[in-house]
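Q: Could you fold this chain for me?
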Amino acid sequence: MIFKQLQTELNQRAAQGLMRSRRTLTAPQSSHIVVDGKPYLAFCSNDYLGLANHPQLIAALRQGAQQWGVGAGAAHLVSGHFEPHHLLEQRLAAFVGKPAALLFSTGYMANLGVVQALAGKSDTVFADKLNHASLNDAMLLSRAEVKRYRHGDMAQLARLFEQTKSGRKLVITDAVFSMDGDIALLRDMLALCEQYDAWLYVDDAHGFGVLGEQGRGSLSHFGIPSERIIYMATLGKAAGVSGAFVAAEQVVIDTLVNHANSYVYTTATPPALSSALLQSLQLIEQADNLRSRLHGLAARLRSGLADLPWSLMPSETAIQPLLIGDNQRALELSAALRERGIWVAAIRPPTVPQGMARLRITLSAAHTEADVDRLIGALHELAH
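A: Sure. Below is the predicted structure, expressed as C-alpha cells.
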C-alpha cells in the first residue's frame, strides 16, 4: 500500500511536468559533454571558468592522492584534518579578505551548519524569498523565528527589522541567485544590518571565482569589507573541484568548529581535493582573461536572443534564464534542443515559483562564440 501511494504521487508529478530524472555523463565535464553515449553542446553546468577538467588540477589531484592517500578517514576534530586542509583554509581566508576560514564538504552542509550554529529559538532569521533551498532548510533547522521578505525588497526588510526587538538577528541571502542570475543588493543589506546590529550571511556559490577583483567574489565586486559579514562560497563551480568554505572573524569560525553540526559530525573531505583546490585558487587569481571572455559571451547571447517571444531575465552573470512560463512548454523546448544536440536544463516549480518555468542557460569560459551562436540559431528556429 505504501509503495502504491508513492507511485501515485510520482505519477501526479509527471502529469504536472514536474518529474525529475537523472542522465549519465560518459565523458568529463566540459562545454561539450557526452550523455548516455550521445555528444551534446552543454549550457547547463556551473563550471564557469572551465576548470573542472583542467590538466593542472588533474595533476595536483593525482599528486595529492599519492602523498596523502584517498580518504581523510575521520572528522576534522578527530584525526581527519590534514595539512592541505589547513593550508587551503589559510589561502581562502586571505583570498576573500577575512581573518579565518573553515572547509565544509558541500555548500549545502555549510549553510545548514552556519545558520544552525548562529541562530536559535530566541533569535530571528531574515531571508529573501528566492534564496536557495539549502538556506531555506538551514533557517528551519535553526528553530529561529523566520521572517521572509520579497525578492530584493529592502524596504520590507527594514520594516521586518523594526518589528524585531530582541535576540540575535541574522540576514541570509544568495549573492548571485542561482535560478535568476541577478545579484543581491549587498551594499544596501549591509547598511541595514549595521543600523539594526545584525549579521549578514552571504552565500556566494555563483559569484566566487567569477565576480570581483581576481575572482575574489561578490564582496570584492561591491567593495564592502565588514566584520559583520559571514561569507560562504562553494568550490565545485567556478573553482572546478568540490566542497565549500566559510570565511569570517576568528570568533565566528571558532563558534562553527564547536557548534556547526554539519562540520563536527561528518568525515573530512579527502585531503587530495584540497591539494587540487590550492592549484585552482592560483588559476582563479590569474583568470582575468577567462572572466572577460565569460562577460563577452553573455553579452553576445543577450544580443542574439533579444527578439525572441520568450524573454531573458535581467542578469549580468553567467546565469542567463530564458523565461518560458509553462512547465510543459519549457520541457518541450529543452527536449527540442536536445534533439539538435544542445543540452539546456528546464527549471520548474518548486525550484522556481509557479508560472515561472524557464530554460536556465549557463555559460562557461570554455564556450566559443560559435557555440553561443549555435544556441541562438536553434532557439530562433524553435521560436518560428
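A (continued): The first strand starts at residue 32 and ends at 35.
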